[in-house]
Design a protein that fits this description.
mainly alpha; 8 helices; elongated
Length: about 200
């Protein structure tokens, strides 16, 4: 009779490809680098393909650091599904609110018309508000600071596209849950068990 708690091949050959098994056999840094490379490529390629097919911003700059956090440091509170989803939602709301507060909601992006004083205020206000609200809700997610600037600088401003950004974040989170759990990492389904410092 076999001990069910003893490590074995009973889980099948796939268990040998899980992150803990690979880390037990090979040096940590190359294994983690390969994991981040493969999963960053797969997840962003899927979202970029959706963007290409749909003609919507399913891929945007702050998705890169989010993907990095979700695969390189999945157990940190900032990488939890809760903080990721809340952080980007807060960034979207604060960025769009700053555009309205400064009268820039229908203006061309800063890359086209330059950085006016109104744009300076919108960018500063959006980032400050995003950081403050994330702290108040105990939902820090640093890449959301880039999301709010993407909006307050006028790069993405249409309400439908703002919703698409949050949907893209949700799809990335779902991919991270599936990939991290398949890899044997106890990635949280909602909130990290670690406390935010």
């Amino acid at each position: 009779m076999t001990d069910p708690t003893a490590p074995s091949d009973a889980k099948g050959p796939l268990a040998r490809l899980q992150l803990p098994a690979l880390l037990a056999r090979y040096p940590e840094r190359p294994v983690r680098a390969a994991f981040v490379f493969a999963n960053g490529f797969i997840t962003i390629a899927i979202l970029a393909a959706v963007a290409r097919i749909s003609g919507t911003p399913f891929v945007f700059p702050s998705l890169g650091p989010t993907a990095f956090l979700l695969f390189a440091t999945p157990l940190l509170p900032a990488a939890s599904p809760r903080n990721t989803l809340y952080g980007h939602a807060i960034g979207i709301a604060c960025g769009y609110g700053a555009l309205w507060a400064t009268g820039l909601a229908h203006s061309p992006p800063a890359m086209v018309e330059g950085v006016s004083w109104d744009r300076v205020i919108a960018a500063a206000l959006s980032l400050a508000a995003t950081g403050a609200v994330m702290m108040l809700l105990d939902a820090p997610h640093p890449p959301a600071g880039a999301t709010t600037l993407i909006i307050s600088l006028g790069i993405v401003t249409r309400p439908f596209h703002l919703a698409v950004i949050e949907v893209a974040v949700a799809l990335l989170v779902l991919q991270a849950v599936a990939i991290n759990r398949l890899a044997g990492t106890p990635y949280p389904l909602w909130r990290s068990s670690q406390k935010t410092p």
